[in-house]
Sequence to fold (208 residues):
Amino acid sequence: MTARRAIDTLSRSMALTTRPPIRTRRFRRVEYEQLAELGFFQPGERLELVDGLLVVREPQGTPPATAVRLAVAALRRAFGAGWHVDSQLPVALDDDSEPEPDVAVVPGGPRDYLVAHPSRPVLVLEVAEASLEFDRGYKASLYARAGVADYWIVNLVERTLEIRRHPEPLDAAPCGWSYRTLDVLVPPAAVAPLAAPATRILVADLLP
Fold:
C-alpha cells in the first residue's frame, strides 16, 4: 500500500469513528393521535405508543386471543356495574405513552370517554407469549410510572399468572419505575383485584 493510499484509508476510518451518533425522534401522544386521525398509518396496522416509541404489536394466535377473551369475561364478572372492561383499546397513560393493553379496567362506562381515552386504569392485564420479556420489562416499568396499581400478566409460556403491585421509582428500570412486589400464581390459586377486593378470580379461568 502506498503512503497516499494509507493516508486515505486512515482518513476514511477516522471519519467513520468520529461521525456523530444517529439521532432518533420520539413522538408525543398528541402527535401520535393526530397522525392516526390523518390516516397516516395503514388500515389494520397494530401500533401502540410506548414511552415515545411506536411499537408494532405482533399478530395474535389462537391461544393468546382465547386468553384475552377469558380475561375480559372474568374481569367483567368480578367488577360488575360502574366499571368498564376494555380490550386492546388506547389508554392515555401520559404525554409520551398510549399503549393498547390486552385488557384494561377503567371506571365508568363507554360514553364517559367520548372526549378522551381512559387515562387511569385500576387494572391492566397483558397476555404474553412472544412478548413476555417486553411485557415484564418495558411494559411493567411504563405502567408503574403511570401509577397503575394492579398489573397482571397471563404468562402462556409457563402457564402462570404474574401479579405486580406497589409501583415505586427504580433508576435501573427502562422507564425509571418498577413494582415492589411480584406474585406468581398457578391453578388452583385465586386472586382478588385491588379495586374489587370482595371478588375472586381463578387463575385457571384465565388460561386457555
